[in-house]
């Protein structure tokens, strides 16, 4: 292989690495519907991620609870070197000495070794068995917390997405007004050149165009800020490009308000508290069963070796010891600790019941308020739509009068101003209606 070819391969390798790195760092392009935005958010939002990690944490905690009911097998091995063999006093009369005196004697070997294998099995412990029963509820509690978190994220994504969608209508109206005024500017300029208008009329139109251009620029800035907020909420990199594909219109905003009843159980928060109540009940049961004895089985198999020289695995006997045992631990008096824990658990249950009752009142209030706000927003939207259509009709009639020479520039300017005001009010009504619709669907637990 020539040096030139080696250099070529080296440069090719660098080029490929740089190309792959550029692809990895290039911003993503996303054309998302509102549902795609929601799907992206429930996977990448930090709060949802942490809630999902809490589910995994609960899985490991459940494994830890299960381990208490499974056999526990342990082994040990040890070697002891007696630098000084222990001394024991034995009555001297055993050796023919006088009574009442003692003779120091050393028993044992310098090197002792032992290998042990121990099996333990819990046969009964009320608290452990209740913990086993509560595992499913604990998992359900964490999973429901994920759903509650996702519900909040969904509502906010809906609101921002639809507000940005309404902004498209706002920009379209502003563009139409600017184009309309520019046409009017041209026509008034022609009239001015022919001596049928004044320079002041052209200046007034120019002022209106400048105001609309400024208003459009502010709206575009607000839209960009809205996109940044939506990306942050979704957990999307700011450098990525996001395009919204869904559109919002006057007709689809009005749909969705129905007089159907609602159920408390449709709300994720209510489901979440019901599971908390179930866990509180398990807690009471757990502490009550702590008054019962606990029973455990133990089995030990042991080998021991005694050597005068450090030759543990050489020639010599290993002596076997084995036994089985049953341990019964009976609680007698603990200073009323168990009684205190039971009463604390009962108080926690009462607090959860109170929270459920209060949540019912809150849901009733939210549903009624959201329904009223939605109805009001739709009525306002209808009114502003009619008002905008009327203002546009007035403008068109005034423009025709100006073109036929029966109208004045003051009339057309006033009609244009009224039309812009009506359009601004209509956009504001669309914003309010979009938010009211999302709040209503969330209140009745129908946010998809």
């Amino acid at each position: 292989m020539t040096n030139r070819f080696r250099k070529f391969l080296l440069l090719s390798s660098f080029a490929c690495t740089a190309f792959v790195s550029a692809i990895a760092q290039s911003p993503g392009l996303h054309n998302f519907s509102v549902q795609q935005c929601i799907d992206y958010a429930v996977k990448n939002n930090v709060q949802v991620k942490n809630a999902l990690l809490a589910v995994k944490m609960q899985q490991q905690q459940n494994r830890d609870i299960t381990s208490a009911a499974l056999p526990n097998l342990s082994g040990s091995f040890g070697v002891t070197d007696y630098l000084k063999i222990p001394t024991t006093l034995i009555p001297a009369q055993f050796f023919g000495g006088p009574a009442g005196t003692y003779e120091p004697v050393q028993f044992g070997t310098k090197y002792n070794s032992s290998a042990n294998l121990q099996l333990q099995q819990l046969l009964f412990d009320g608290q452990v068995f209740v913990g086993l029963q509560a595992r499913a509820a604990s998992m359900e509690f964490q999973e429901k917390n994920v759903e509650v978190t996702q519900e909040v994220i969904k509502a906010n994504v809906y609101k921002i997405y639809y507000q940005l969608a309404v902004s498209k209508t706002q920009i379209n109206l502003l563009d139409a007004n600017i184009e309309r005024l520019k046409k009017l500017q041209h026509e008034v300029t022609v009239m001015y050149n022919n001596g049928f208008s004044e320079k002041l009329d052209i200046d007034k139109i120019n002022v209106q165009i400048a105001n609309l251009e400024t208003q459009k620029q502010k709206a575009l800035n607000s839209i960009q800020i809205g996109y940044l907020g939506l990306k942050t909420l979704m957990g999307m990199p700011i450098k990525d490009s996001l395009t919204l594909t869904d559109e919002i219109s006057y007709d689809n905003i009005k749909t969705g308000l129905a007089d159907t009843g609602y159920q408390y159980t449709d709300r994720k928060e209510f489901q979440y508290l019901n599971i908390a109540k179930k866990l509180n009940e398990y807690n009471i049961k757990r502490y009550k069963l702590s008054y019962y004895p606990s029973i455990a089985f133990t089995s030990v198999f042991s080998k021991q070796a005694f050597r005068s020289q450090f030759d543990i695995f050489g020639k010599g006997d290993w002596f076997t010891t084995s036994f089985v045992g049953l341990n019964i631990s009976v609680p007698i008096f603990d200073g009323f600790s168990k009684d205190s824990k039971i009463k604390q658990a009962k108080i926690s249950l009462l607090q959860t019941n109170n929270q459920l009752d209060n949540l019912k009142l809150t849901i009733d209030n939210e549903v009624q308020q959201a329904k009223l706000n939605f109805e009001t927003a739709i009525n306002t939207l209808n009114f502003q739509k009619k008002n905008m259509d009327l203002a546009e009709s007035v403008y068109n009639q005034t423009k025709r009068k100006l073109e036929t020479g029966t109208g004045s520039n003051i009339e057309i300017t006033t009609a244009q101003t009224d039309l812009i005001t009506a359009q601004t009010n209509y956009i504001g009504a669309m914003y309010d209606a979009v938010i009211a619709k999302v709040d209503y669907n969330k209140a009745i637990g129908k946010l998809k």
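The longest strand covers residues 111-124. The CA atoms of residues 381 and 429 lie 5 Å apart.
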